[in-house]
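Purpose: get a first structural picture of the assembly so the mutagenesis plan has something to point at.
Setup: two entries, given in the order below. No constraints added.
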Amino acid sequence: MSLDLERALRETPKRFPDADRATTARTLDELRATFAKPRRRRPRRRWVLAVVALLAVGAGAVALALPREDPLPGFRFDWAGTAVCPRWDTAIRLTLESRDVGAALNVTTRGAPLGNPAAGLLAMAASPQTMLNDACRPVAARSLGSARFLKKRVVIRPDLFFTREFKCVPPPGRLVLRIRRTPTATVATGRIENRSALLFSATLTKARGTLLVSKACVEDRA
Amino acid sequence: MTLDDKLLVELARQGSSEAIGEIYERYWPVVWTAAFAITGRRALADDAAAEAMHRAFRALGDFDTARPLGPWLKRICANVAIDELRRERRQQPLWSEELLEAAADDLPFADDVVSAVEALPERQRLVIVLHYWLDYRTEDIAQLLALPYGTVASRLSRALAELRASLEERHVA
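Result (structure tokens, whole complex):
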């Protein structure tokens, strides 16, 4: 019997499910955006280098002469996008906005804020170390309208502004907010998930001063 | 490590998008399954596996290419997943009793062996998962969990005994 039990245990992983395609694709995109470098082509002739250098100097001079524009995507310009959960109608609303010194992702439920990470992010823009210390401080549970703000967790990675998690009721599940900066855009995602399903996800993308995508969707992945 | 893996690592270190994609395609299923085995939940497995891949690619410069890539990735994932599990345990309970009962119907896989493993106390469950599902040796588990070898061995033995008893009750073993 001992042998049977051990064999049954070892064969168990064969019945495990696979990761869903959306997660697999999203993670690969994030890895490529973070770690892949654009290919460099070697110039064939020295004069190409000289021309490029001249152009660069010229462009630099022009850039210095003009007012600075959006050196860090997602900053400098006011912009905002809103995604509303179609399943709970206006119950969950994600709003992403950029301000003079930072970006903020707000989540509201029935008009009451579920949590406002703006202060932390603004602090991070001023001082990453301040943000790290501030963001990791535990936050006491409190009630806000129909939503219970139970806990937040912060993970800071070089490729991400931040990730925050909230336990939310309703809908029962985990709310994960993530603002990520790529070389060309700032992407904010919010998703609400419970044990077996991704209930709601919203993505807001800002690139080159324009809000490109604002979408919300309900996904079931049984 | 196969030659292919070695080449892929070198290319990925240089920022090759194709190499990153190829490594990911090869090892993401392994990493995700390890995360799922440890956490037992899709959402946690997604987060742990993604975080593990990010950590691995960040540390790729320090990776010894004389060693196999798969076990290294799996090890990173196991560490991340165990951290996630411990973090979840510290949080306040999310699920009300009614919701837990409802969620039990949605478990992604449910048979007697898995149910019996899930019912074990966490420290016993973890050694069973690492030993039988992720193929770690007892000494590796001891190192991973920062526990003495004897402690891991006795947990493994007790966990097996409890599993056996549990399955006998269910008339399965």
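Chain A touches chain B through 48 residues (CB under 8 Å).
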